[in-house]
Amino acid sequence: MELLSHCAVPLAALFDLLKGQCDGISIADATALAACDNKRIPRHNVFKGYAERGKTSMGWFYGFKLHAIINSKSELLRIQLTPGNVDDRKPMPERCQGLQLITPLKKNMKPVPRTDFDKAILRRRSLIEAVFDELKNLCQIEHTRHRSHFNFMVNLMAGIAAYCLSDNKPTLSLTKVNLLQ
């Protein structure tokens, strides 16, 4: 246990060294990190007081949300971990100062004029979903067998560092975006 508590800080420092640089196009989103299966929520005690019940488009979960900002090369720029019940938009203002927000319009929103570039970027939003897929499936940042807080944090930061070191990241083809203008 003592060793695990000392590993999380160096892994966070490693991420700070490996993270990408902003290249003018940044995409932000959040993904759920379940701490346990929904059936085991009443018996789950490891993250009591830390994890919360939240809802995504895929349904309810108990755990955390990983908020991430990536650049067009799928390099992680910033990350933040929050309880599962935190609104996806809440951590973003402090993370995205001086940026233009481009978001899809909902039915109850007023129309906003969009440039062709804005429309092309919105169609490429699946890039961050591909990043989350690689983080969860290849780097294995999500599983429901953690037995301590330190184990969870070390596993998360090790997976993020592994992703930063990987060579085959999904990318946003800027030439295709420019052709759509």
Automatic annotation (TrEMBL):
Origin: domain of life: Bacteria
Domain Transposase DDE residues, every copy: 19-99
Domain called Transposase IS4-like: residue spans: 119-165
Pfam families named in the record: DDE_Tnp_1 (PF01609), DDE_Tnp_1_3 (PF13612)
Record protein name field: Transposase
